[in-house]
Amino acid sequence: MIKPNKNFFIDNIKTLLYALIIAIIIRSLFIQPFYIPSSSMEPNLLVGDRIFVTKYTYGYSKHSFPFSPPIFKNRLLKKNPERGDVVVFKTPTDNRTDYIKRLIGIPGDSIQFIDGELYLNNNQILKSIISKSEQVFCSNKKFITYKFEEKLPNNKKYIAVYNKQFTFQNSDKFIIPDKHYFFLGDNRDCSKDSRFLSSVGYVHENNLVGKAQFIFFSSDYRVGRFLEFWKWHKSVRYDRFFKIIK
Hints:
Layout: H1 6-29, E1 31-35, E2 49-54, E3 86-90, E4 98-105, E5 110-114, E6 117-120, E7 123-124, E8 126-138, E9 141-151, E10 157-163, E11 174-175, E12 180-184, E13 203-204, E14 208-218, H2 232-235, E15 243-244
Antiparallel strand pairs: 1-2, 2-14, 3-4, 3-14, 4-12, 5-6, 5-11, 6-7, 8-9, 9-10, 12-13, 14-15
């Protein structure tokens, strides 16, 4: 009769613990995968995209770690994000939910929509029309939008789409407080972002989680779920693998 080897079980438990610790360190300090659940960043990020976010880009806060433990108050190794960055952050309303949006306003900036046009510090953001028939989703509904290339003052360029009716026409002037940031979704008429002060509003620097870098996998859930591997030939978007997020 073979007796159980206690050292065998202890060694395996140790191996699992070491692997878990290493995974937590990598996830907290270096890079973390995220899943895109909404269409607020279309056409740049689609529902079903899986992305990698670098945690070290802006330094570290309690939100860099699982469950946001209150281990320190402010950011360590702080680096300021730049206008145009695509950023994952914790929503200020609950400090728990992860959102991904594009950074438009930095501390001291003013943001305003006038007749459907975006103004930054009283200057209209330049945009060049690319298409008048871009199809994007808003939840499970498909809309025809205008597709523009927008250019920020730091020369950062990106794609944004607007509903043909420009449903978000006018706003009050948003003045970004110190140590806070203002975010917009690229799918401008289908995004809950900093324009909505009661649900998102201005985002404190401590709520920044990291910078979105690239897509490593993408599948269309409308065609097939991730685990339905027999449908991957239809659902997987191979052309989006390792696509840089701009």
